[in-house]
């Protein structure tokens, strides 16, 4: 569960990124976060990932109070999250297999666990035949699926996808969103930050809209789509 209660964020340079934001996302939901550039979407995600701390208000995620969490508990908390970035952030010198395995190794997973888990996850995203390939040898859509596999490999309860379709073509974008939808059906909460309104309309999930640091709407996909016509 993700719970924001009257959260505001102001940076040291005086930029007010979020103002009195409140919402909750239940375990197992699939939610889009939309809004124009500079609206506060990235700040929202950074707060969830505990890369930033709220100036005021309260944030609770997976039972952790992010205002009070410190030290090693932050690392432990982040392991409950799977994060997919727009720019993939793959390690070019590593194969597809090793890029995914690396996410397990940093948590101290055993070799046996890695050998079991990585092929399973690569199979889930349709990339097992590419396990020995390097990022430069696969397409942009395949690279995004590697990034998704890496986010999934630690079995997170929450998946955060920050503009996951920003660097791939429209057809592949739909494939990635469909894959996230299938993963969501298995239990994880999925939060997708997106500027692609056509995709948001098509998939019809809950949509939280942020403008100028404030939530301006929180509706199901059908109502949100009608409002955008």
Word description of this protein:
With 229 residues, the chain is of the alpha/beta class. Helix content is 36%, strand content 26%. The chain has eight helices and ten strands. It has helices spanning 41-48, 72-78, 96-105, 111-124, 140-152, 170-185, 197-203, 221-228; strands at 2-10, 16-25, 30-34, 56-61, 64-65, 81-85, 158-162, 189-193, 206-211, 214-219. It has a six-stranded mixed beta sheet, sandwiched between helices. The chain has a four-stranded antiparallel beta sheet with strand order 2-1-4-5, with helices on one face. It is globular. 34% of the residues are buried. The mean pLDDT is 90.
What is shown here, in short?
By secondary structure, this protein is of the alpha/beta class.
What is the N-to-C succession of helices and strands? Answer: EEEHEEHEHHHEHEHEEH
Low-confidence stretches: none
Number of strands: 10
The main sheet comes to: 6 strands, mixed
The coarse silhouette is globular
Distance N terminus to C terminus?
Answer: 31 Å
Structural class: alpha/beta
| Largest sheet, spatial ordering of strands | 6-7-8-3-9-10
Summed over residues and divided by their number, the pLDDT gives a mean of 90
* Computed CA radius of gyration, to the nearest angstrom: 18 Å
- Work out the helix count: 8
Q: Helix coverage percent of residues?
A: 25-40%
Topology:
Blueprint: E1 2-10, E2 16-25, E3 30-34, H1 41-48, E4 56-61, E5 64-65, H2 72-78, E6 81-85, H3 96-105, H4 111-124, H5 140-152, E7 158-162, H6 170-185, E8 189-193, H7 197-203, E9 206-211, E10 214-219, H8 221-228
Helix pairs in contact: 3-4, 3-5, 4-5, 7-8
């Amino acid at each position: 569960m993700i719970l924001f209660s009257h959260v505001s964020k102001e940076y040291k340079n005086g930029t007010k990124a979020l103002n009195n934001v409140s919402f909750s996302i239940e375990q197992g939901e699939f939610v889009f976060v939309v809004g124009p550039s500079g609206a506060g979407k990235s700040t929202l995600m950074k707060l969830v990932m505990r890369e930033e701390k709220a100036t005021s208000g309260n944030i609770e995620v997976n039972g952790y109070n992010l205002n009070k969490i410190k030290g090693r508990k932050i690392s432990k908390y982040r392991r409950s999250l799977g994060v997919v970035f727009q720019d993939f952030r793959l390690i070019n010198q590593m194969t597809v297999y090793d890029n995914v395995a690396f996410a397990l190794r940093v948590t101290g997973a055993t070799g046996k666990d890695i050998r079991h888990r990585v092929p399973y996850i690569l199979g889930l995203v349709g990339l097992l035949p590419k396990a020995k390939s390097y990022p430069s040898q696969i397409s942009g859509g395949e690279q995004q699926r590697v990034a998704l596999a890496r986010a999934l490999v630690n079995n997170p309860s929450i998946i955060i996808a920050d503009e996951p379709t920003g660097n791939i073509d429209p057809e592949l974008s739909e494939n990635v969103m469909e894959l996230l939808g299938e993963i969501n059906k298995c239990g994880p909460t999925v939060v997708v930050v997106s500027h692609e309104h056509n995709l948001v309309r098509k998939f019809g999930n809950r949509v939280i809209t942020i403008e100028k640091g404030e939530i301006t709407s929180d509706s199901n996909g059908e109502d949100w789509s009608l409002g955008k016509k």
